[in-house]
Amino acid sequence: xxxxxxxxxxxxxxxxxxxxxxxxxxxxxxxxxxxxxxxxxxxxxxxxxxxxxxxxxxxxxxxxxxxxxxxxxxxxxxxxxxxxxxxxxxxxxxxxxxxxxxxxxxxxxxxxxxxxxxxxxxxxxxxxxxxxxxxxxxxxxxxxxxxxxxxxxxxxxxxxxxxxxxxxxxxxxxxxxxxxxxxxxxxxxxxxxxxxxxxxxxxxxx
Length: 206
What we know:
Layout: H1 2-22, E1 24-28, E2 38-41, E3 58-62, H2 66-77, E4 81-84, H3 91-103, E5 107-111, H4 124-133, E6 137-142, E7 147-149, E8 157-159, E9 164-169, H5 181-204
Parallel strand pairs: 1-9, 2-5, 2-6, 3-4, 3-5
Antiparallel strand pairs: 6-9, 7-8
Helix pairs in contact: 1-2, 4-5
């Protein structure tokens, strides 16, 4: 099985490296000085992480599923770090590791509606991590001029070579340690609305 993952991820990494060479990321409202941070993205737009510099210091939370295994192999081949688990399977271990990474100065990439949806609905795990760590959430969205959209639950986007890919970053969102359950719901909705707004803003910049 490991050999299968290696082969699939090798081809996927080749495609992503080719996209790096031919595509064009354009960053808007990017604040590299705000670090460490938790970059919040939709599951279907994971490609936009390729536009964030210092990949080794960006740790991507990836589920422990079989699909997650292939993704983990792939992203490590193109220079990212990974954290395995989700707020369900492997949740406690993953949460502790994420908090440690943030305390040590690393950044986290978090797919807020993953790994299984529902699409465009922020889950509580994001708010929990921001509250426990005291680090900011930075919403991030994108679009691309040429792309293939899979018929999966997340409408997974794969930009095609030569695409222009605007990356639009939101302002940092801090979650206080003493946040109430009602306020957690408000923060979830706030991040949802911001990500949807950023997606529309990115579309206008194509």
